[in-house]
Amino acid sequence: MSAPSQRRFLQLPDVAEILNISMSQVLALVRRGDVRAVKIGGRGQWRVEIAELEAYIQRCYAETDALSAAQIADQAEAVHDEAGTAARSGQLTDGHDS
After folding, report:
1. What stretch of H or E contains 47?
2. Is residue 96 assigned to a domain?
3. Beta-strand relationship, 38-40 and 45-49
4. pTM of the model
5. CB 29 within 8 A of CB 35
C-alpha cells in the first residue's frame, strides 16, 4: 500500500475528515456535483480524486473572496450613506460647540 501522500483517490470519510464536515454533507456535495467523484468497483464505492478536492477548495476560496469583496463594498457604501444622512440632518458637527 502506498503512503497517503502518494494516493490518487480518497474515500468519502477521508473527504469528510479533511473538510471537517459530516458524511451526509460530503454525499450532498457529491450528488450536487460540487465535488466531482467516481463510483469504483462492483459495490459502487465513491472515490474523490485529490486534485478534484483541491479544485473544490480553490473554488470555495474564490467564492469567499468574491463575497468578501462584495460585503466590503456594501459596508463602505452603507457608511457613506449614513454619513450623508447624518450630515443632512445636522447630526455631524465640525467639532466645535454651537
Report:
1. strand 45-49
2. no
3. antiparallel
4. 0.67
5. yes
For residue 19, with 0-12 CB atoms within 10 Å meaning exposed, 13-18 middle and 19 or more buried, which class applies? middle
14-58 confidence digits (pLDDT tens): 999 999 999 999 999 999 999 999 999 889 999 999 999 999 999
* Tens-digit pLDDT profile for residues 56-79: 999 999 998 888 887 887 777 777
| Domain range for 70 | 8-88
Q: Are residues 58 and 15 in contact, defined by beta-carbon separation less than 8 angstroms?
A: no
How many Å is the Cα radius of gyration of the chain?
24
Please, what is the Cα angle at 72 between 70 and 75, to 5 degrees? 110
Residue 26 lies in a domain: yes
